[in-house]
Design goal:
Layout (H helix, E strand, L loop, with lengths): L18 H25 L9 H23 L4 H26 L4 H42 L9 H10 L6 E7 L2 H8 L1 H18 L4 E5 L4 E6 L4 H14 L4 E3 L2 E2 L2 E7 L6 H17 L5 E4 L1
Parallel strand pairs: 6-7
Antiparallel strand pairs: 1-3, 1-6, 2-3, 4-5
């Protein structure tokens, strides 16, 4: 198990490109292509002696596909940097294909093919490829971010109930113990000092746990003020030391300048043929005993 630490925050740049920018690119794209066609036909209006239908259709289809891709980019939500490279790249690529298409119909000077058609098409392909790389990188970052959000608690950044249950069930065959901790008198903290103080108490408590708990502990928030730990050991002494550490570190969390936090803790070691729900239930029963015995203490359920 990895070192217990706050799950990383992954930020993907997916700020939507302003509509006015997209409108400008679309207008510029259409106007420039039309101007190229009109200017080209005005200056080079001698038809080719041999016009091959398959060549004309092939270039026309290629150009149409590229125009559709450009339209797709304009309607997609991508990062600004990716959008810029994709739009510029596809535009230059389309310019090159437009000259290539016209070359099938009308006589084209060699210098146009070498210095305009080939250069714009090649540059367009390179820039589009780089823009696609940026878009895929952003997509991967976004997926990673969503995966983290699905398994972490929004407020505290601890692992959430769903991920904790999934993790424990995936590791049922390994020796382990389950611990449940509940913040003492949390409702009273909210009522007396306000929910903002209560939220900060939760955040501070999780921070202290992330800093102190070892590699063999998975820490999660499974309810309002209720937390759970998967401890990768079936040794009672090691489990006791971990739970006592939890009781100790919570004193570092200040509710007010003169009041520290306290928690009640219950634990249970998984038996050989026991299910996850049964082990969790015994840990919960131990927590209940800790509360009934005066709170701010640790009870183990054999």
């Amino acid at each position: 198990m990895n070192k217990q630490a706050p799950p990383p925050e992954v930020k993907a740049e997916l700020n939507s490109v302003p509509l006015v920018v997209k409108q400008f690119f679309i207008s510029f794209f259409v106007v420039v292509l039309l101007m190229i066609v009109v200017t080209y036909l005005y200056n080079f209006n001698r038809l080719e002696s041999d016009v091959y239908l398959n060549g004309v259709l092939s270039d026309a289809i290629n150009l149409l596909i590229l125009i559709c891709i450009f339209a797709f980019v304009q309607t997609s939500v991508v990062a600004k940097r990716s959008y810029l490279f994709l739009s510029v790249g596809i535009f230059l690529w389309s310019v090159g294909l437009t000259f290539d298409f016209l070359d099938e119909l009308v006589f084209q000077p060699i210098w146009v093919g070498i210095y305009i058609e080939d250069i714009t098409r090649t540059l367009g392909m390179l820039i589009t490829g780089f823009g696609l790389y940026l878009a895929l990188t952003d997509l991967a970052k976004t997926r990673e971010q969503l995966e983290e959000e699905l398994k972490t608690d929004v407020l505290t950044k601890a692992y959430n109930r769903r991920y904790f249950y999934h993790y424990v069930q995936q590791n049922q065959s390994k020796p382990h113990s389950l611990v449940i901790a509940d913040i003492d008198h949390f409702k009273a903290i909210n009522d007396e000092y306000g929910h903002d103080v209560g939220d900060q108490v939760l955040i501070d408590f999780v921070y202290q746990c992330h800093q102190a708990l070892g590699e063999d502990v998975l820490f999660a928030r499974i309810g309002g003020e209720e937390f759970a730990m998967y401890v990768a050991t079936d040794d009672a002494d090691e489990l006791h030391a971990t739970c006592e550490q939890l009781l100790s570190l919570v004193s570092n969390v200040m509710v007010t300048p003169s009041k520290t936090l306290s928690v009640s803790v219950g634990s249970a070691i998984k038996r050989a043929t026991e299910t996850f729900s049964s082990t969790l239930k015994r840990a919960d029963q131990a927590l209940y005993l800790a509360k009934n015995q005066g709170r701010s203490r640790y009870v183990h359920k054999p």
